[in-house]
Amino acid sequence: MALKASSTDQAHLLELQALDTRIQQLDHRAKMIPQLAVLARLGNESTTLRGETLSATGALEDAQRELGRIESDVELVEARIKRDTTRLQASSSVKDVAGLESELSGLNRRKLELEEIELGVMERVEALEAASRELRAKHDELQATISGTEAEKDESLGGLTSERSHAAANRSTIAGKLPEELVALYERQRARYGQGASLLRGGVSEASGLELNEFDMAAIRAAAPDDVLLCPESSAILVRTGESGL
Prior knowledge:
With 246 residues, this protein is an alpha+beta fold. The chain folds into 2 domains: 7-27 and 179-240, no CATH class; 33-163, Helix Hairpins (Orthogonal Bundle). The protein has 5 helices and 5 strands, in the order ααααβββαββ. The chain has a 5-stranded mixed beta sheet. Helix 1 (7-32) runs antiparallel to helix 3. The longest helix is centred in the middle third of the chain and has 83 residues, at 94-176. The protein starts with 6 loop residues before the first helix and ends in a 6-residue tail after the last strand.
């Protein structure tokens, strides 16, 4: 048995379709707001910067450990120099003095070598510390930019979400007043073909934008006003009004 519904109920489907189209547009706009692309780019920059920071931190820690080892070696050499100097001053043995002087000479050379290495490592540590500070500053600046962009995104989405909620509420109100079978058919056709209802205006179905042929128009004219018809072009529910050219 063909579905029937009053002309008034069928006409309300156009309001439902308009609201569904608006909701679809709002959902698309929500996915396309500029801040989302900016945040994606900033997220990639943040990931890259995080990797650079971790690498720089690791290099700095390695250099600091190396500096610590050299400083420890210098302290050991200085302690041996101090010990041998004390023994040299207290020794009266020519042989011992000669041995101590030779050892002290070698220790002093070793100290100079270590201090030269230490100076180079200290310079490297300072450079790495400066690089780390610069990366932290970039990180802080980037996070501030991300926070600002997030706020802009939330503001943009807030307006769209509010408008969508209003449209969805109106849709529910309209749908709730229509026969369940009519709404179910509308939903089924919209899910399958993109639009659930189409106004017939001057012999043209608005959903497809095509003019119906005389055979289809004759069948439409022969139908009762409460017959629920499907557009032969778009498969949407064809809504007839005084503008339909019947």
